[in-house]
Amino acid sequence: KIKAPHSVGMGAYGMDSHNCRRYVDKNGFVRNEGNIEDYRGMNKPYPIDFGAIVPKRAECKNLLVPICVSSSHMAFGSIRMEPVFFALGQVAGTAASHAIDAGCPVQDVSYEKLSARLVADGQVISWK
């Protein structure tokens, strides 16, 4: 089970990383190199944690990164879909507004207030 204690959105696409090279092997067969496709277990959406779009405090106090998220390359293969970017963009805008109103770095935004606002605005943050 994927753990995201501060879920702010959902992803649902299977991992796919297209082949980087196609070649003919010594037996005359066409082969793909670097192809990864994994849709096993993608029967339901998974949560994305707020921490995936917020850098460490020591790195930057007022930056939200909804596209270049903190994830493995495998997870990014799923997260990189436009609907997820739309959702994370909404999270970033809402979190920025909360940080400005509270006069605090984005790392100190109240998750309870943020998640309540996201849900009120129609964001799906959990799958039951």
Describe this protein's structure.
- This protein has 3 helices and 6 strands; from the N terminus they run ββββββααα.
- It has helices at 73-79, 82-102, 111-120; strands at residues 7-11, 15-17, 21-24, 30-33, 36-38, 46-49.
- Strands 1-6 form a two-stranded antiparallel sheet. The protein has a two-stranded antiparallel sheet with strand order 2-5.
- It is elongated and about 65 Å long.
Topology, please?
Layout: E1 7-11, E2 15-17, E3 21-24, E4 30-33, E5 36-38, E6 46-49, H1 73-79, H2 82-102, H3 111-120
Antiparallel strand pairs: 1-6, 2-5, 3-4
Distance between the termini: 13 Å
Q: List the total number of helices.
A: 3
Radius of gyration: 18 Å
- Low-confidence runs of at least 5 consecutive residues: none
Strand content: 15-25%
Q: Quick check: average pLDDT?
A: 89
User: How many beta-strand runs?
Assistant: 6
Q: Could you estimate the helical fraction of the residues in percent?
A: 25-40%
Structural class: alpha+beta
With strands numbered from the N-terminus, the spatial order across the biggest sheet is 1-6
Order of helices and strands: EEEEEEHHH
Any idea what the shape is?
Answer: elongated
The largest sheet, given as strand count, sense and whether it forms a barrel, is: 2 strands, antiparallel
What would the keywords be for this entry?
128 residues, alpha+beta, two-stranded antiparallel sheet
Give a brief rundown of this model:
The protein is of the alpha+beta class and 128 residues long. The chain contains 3 helices and 6 strands, in the order ββββββααα. It has a two-stranded antiparallel sheet. The chain has a two-stranded antiparallel ribbon with strand order 2-5. Strands 3-4 form a two-stranded antiparallel sheet.
